[in-house]
């Protein structure tokens, strides 16, 4: 019997006792979807309206799920966590090794810092956390703009975020 949906719901709800019961029954916490190449660490950051409890995220990390797994769209769990504006989830990922891929570009030309400024709300804490863990505000793809260049022209960016980015000097 497959416990895929039950396990997914228990993880999203933060019901760790149910997660452990399902894993003991044979549910595969290391399952990767065939077409999208999503792990549970990708899944927990998919919702744009709800955030998975940090206990669930830490459990997945403790079970050895790859914090730098790249899905078929080129996204890491960190990029999804940024899109979700989940600062606690971001911190757990970054402290567990996701900082090694903080500059990774997905298939749409986004890295974690650019994702922080794609769509509102633009959150100071999200940007600061990424910068503190080494995100480069001057990184850009050929023909593109850096985050530093982008915030100068994007309407609605909090002046505090602009000031924060300016504090991180270019290393050129």
TrEMBL record:
Tell me the SUPFAM superfamilies matching this sequence. Ankyrin repeat
Q: Repeats (ANK): which ranges?
A: 73-99, 108-142
Database matches in Gene3D superfamilies: Ankyrin repeat-containing domain (1.25.40.20)
Keywords (alphabetical) are: ANK repeat, Repeat
One annotated GO molecular function is: ubiquitin-protein transferase activity
| Gene Ontology biological-process annotations | protein K6-linked ubiquitination
| Name of the protein this chain belongs to | Ankyrin repeats (3 copies)
Source organism (scientific name): Vibrio quintilis
Annotated coiled-coil positions are none
Q: Which PROSITE patterns match?
A: ANK_REP_REGION (PS50297), ANK_REPEAT (PS50088)
């Amino acid at each position: 019997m497959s416990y895929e949906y039950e396990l997914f719901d228990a993880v999203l709800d933060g019901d760790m006792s149910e997660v452990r019961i399902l894993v003991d029954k044979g549910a595969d916490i290391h399952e990767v979807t065939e077409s999208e190449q999503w792990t549970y660490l990708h899944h927990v950051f998919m919702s744009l309206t709800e955030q998975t409890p940090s206990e669930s995220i830490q459990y997945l990390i403790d079970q050895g799920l790859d914090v730098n797994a790249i899905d078929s769209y080129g996204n890491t769990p960190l990029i999804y966590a940024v899109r979700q504006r989940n600062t606690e989830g971001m911190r757990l990922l970054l402290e567990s090794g996701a900082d090694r891929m903080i500059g990774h570009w997905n298939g749409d030309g986004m890295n974690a810092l650019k994702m922080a400024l794609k769509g509102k709300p633009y959150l100071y804490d999200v940007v600061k956390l990424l910068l503190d863990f080494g995100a480069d505000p001057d990184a850009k793809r050929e023909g593109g703009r850096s985050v530093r260049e982008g915030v100068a022209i994007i309407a609605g960016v909090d002046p505090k975020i602009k000031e924060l980015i300016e504090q991180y000097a270019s290393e050129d």
